[in-house]
Amino acid sequence: METLFQTILRTSWQAAIVVGLVLAAQWIFRHRLSKAWRHSLWFLVMLRLVAPTLPESSFSLFNVSRLASTASPAEPVEPRRPAESGMLTAPGRLTAAEPAAPTLLPVDNAPVERAKPTLAEADTTTPRLNLWSVAAWIWLAGFTTALARILIGVALFSRRMWENRPIQDERFLRLFDECRQIAGSGKGVIAEESDAVESPALCGFLRPRLLLPSGLLDRFNDRELRFILLHELAHVRRGDVIVNWIASLLKLLHWFNPVLLLAFHRMKADRELACDELALS
Prior knowledge:
The chain is of the alpha+beta class. The chain has a domain at 139-280. Helices cover 56% and strands 8% of the residues. The protein has helices spanning 2-28, 35-40, 43-50, 64-70, 119-125, 131-161, 170-183, 216-219, 222-238, 240-253, 258-280, and strands at residues 87-90, 93-96, 165-166, 190-194, 201-203, 209-213. The protein has a four-stranded mixed sheet, with helices on one face. The chain is flat.
């Protein structure tokens, strides 16, 4: 688990650098980029998060620290001394060093007392606290807590989905068919009234449902209702439902990084603006 957390941590700070580049590009080209292109730039961040291992390159932005460490000067090599090469110098001549005669020492049969370990040796024998392991367990606890909250919310929402009512209003059905022809998508989308939502929302990417709050049809006229339907069908055409699920999973994995949380918030706002732009077109 420590290796997994280290990979996620490295990917997280590298993606944070990409977030800064995306924000800078949006600010520089703010008058030239369309809403759809502003949203598309965030896919660079998602691509960095879903691909933690990329081909190595010496020109990569993430190799700055590595290049700095390799650029340090090499240590000078000291020349070998004559004594190390086995030669002894004397005045006027160079002779080979003769081996010293062996010296016989008296053997002492007394028991030898072992030396007590020094402070440095004692530190190596005592167990140390692994900070990577502690950080990995903290990350896992946060991930599990956030995942449990989402699963509970999805379960409660799915339970209330059984109370949805298909919309049978003729005015709405006529507008819905007209908007599907204009958007060129949403043929398999089912429109339902639901008490589980407070604003129009799409649910599901295999069999999408358009959920409208109860009483919405009575609060808006045909022109306003047409714009609401075109906005939601724009989500279907762009495939935003599955993108939102992938972004939610990445938010769970990188819950500790505030830069990425801000990026996903900005990405959601740009996605809504892109759908407004597509609906108005």
